[in-house]
Amino acid sequence: MRWHRIMLTMSGALALAACHAREAEVTPPRAVIAVTVHRDSRPVLATLPGEVNARYATPLSFRIAGKLIVRNVHLGDTVKAGDVIARLDPDDAQRSLASAQAQLMAAQHRLTFAEQQLDRDRAQAQEQLISTAQLEQTQDAYVAAVAQRDQVVEQFALLKNQVQYTTLTAEHAGVVTSEDADTGQNLAPGQAVYHVAWSGEVDILCDVPESLLKALAVGSAASISLPAVTGRRYAAHVRELSPAADPGSRTYRAKLTLDAPGPEVHLGMTANVTFADTAGEAQADDPITLPATALFHEGNAPAVWVVRPRDQALELRRVQVGRYDDRTISVSQGLTDGERVVLQGVHTVSAGETVRAVAPLHPEDFAS
Q: Which stretch is the leader sequence (predicted)?
């Protein structure tokens, strides 16, 4: 009985100690991904969709008609200048060249004979053995033989070129963007066999609304982001701006050249073209650009979570969004330069919750 009372006393003491230990435990603040925001130094005029294109793209075709018998490259292949990419059946061209070669030999033989006859007649004319009229006929025959020889020489050169034209070579390095003819097809002169986009300078094509025309000109700077290449922006400038609007869309086609495209930039990629206002420096009413992941809603109103500096607690702040882009939002009112805003997990936190703000592990993933 005594031992039973001792055991009960010890059990109660242990339970009370465990209760006090649990009360002493302090839950650490939750870590949230947040960054200090700043106003855009150059307010964005507009962000427009675009497409990556080669500066030059040309169709490749044969100069003569013929039957296509060989295709050495296909869609997406890379070619170098001088590569043979297709061939026509050369039989007819080679036969014509052989005929022209025979005609050239005959014309050269006639010319040799006419030259020898002219030498004999000149010698006989000096001895007054033939008349002047006969010498003139011999001279005329010699001139005609020279002219005929020259004509056959040119015809031979033309047919020799025709044989070379049965082989299609790439004039510039590039990428095959389309196949326009099949093996066995009879082609007309100039009919496209391939389209090749040249390697080298890369353009971004976008359509500009008329409301932006006054702010843009050839040479205007732009910032390019590619959805397929996250965390990087490319500098570009307007190379060409169409003087007339498209009759269907009423927009103006702009061609921008990427200043330093990398190997990760491929033809046909979609792009976001951002034009900034370069008229002045940041002002107090300039917008703040945030990743779209920071956006929350209070009712129907857009809002963001702000980390209060005095107690590290979360405050839900209503904001006014001036522009929505694919990956970013532009906050025109509601935030102050230097405040910390939660970028991720906005649906898992609550107002008044004490948090520990940490920077993104990969800041480029949240680059605006």
A: 1-23
Q: Which of 35-39, 71-75, 148-152 has the lowest mean pLDDT?
A: 35-39
- What's the 3-state SS for the chain? CHHHHHHHHHHHHHHHHHHHHHHHCCCCCEEEEEEECCCCCCCEEEEEEEEEEECCEEEEECCCCEEEEEECCCCCCEECCCCEEEEECCHHHHHHHHHHHHHHHHHHHHHHHHHHHHHHHHHHHHCCCCCHHHHHHHHHHHHHHHHHHHHHHHHHHHHHHHHHCCEEECCCCEEEEEECCCCCCEECCCCEEEEEEECCCEEEEEEECHHHHHHCCCCCEEEEEECCEEEEEEEEEEEEECCCCCCCCCCEEEEEEECCCCCCCCCCCEEEEEEECCCCCCCCCCCEEEEHHHCEEECCEEEEEEECCCCCEEEEEECEEEEECCCEEEEEECCCCCCEEECCCCCCCCCCCEEEEECCCCHHHHCC
Supply the pTM of this predicted model: 0.54
In this structure, CATH architecture of domain 66-88+169-198: Beta Barrel (2.40)
Q: Topology of 91-164 in CATH?
A: Helix Hairpins (1.10.287)
Whether the predicted pLDDT of 150 surpasses 70: yes
Choosing among 1.10.3720.10, 2.60.120.430, 3.60.10.10, 2.40.30.170, the CATH entry for 46-55+200-276 is 2.40.30.170
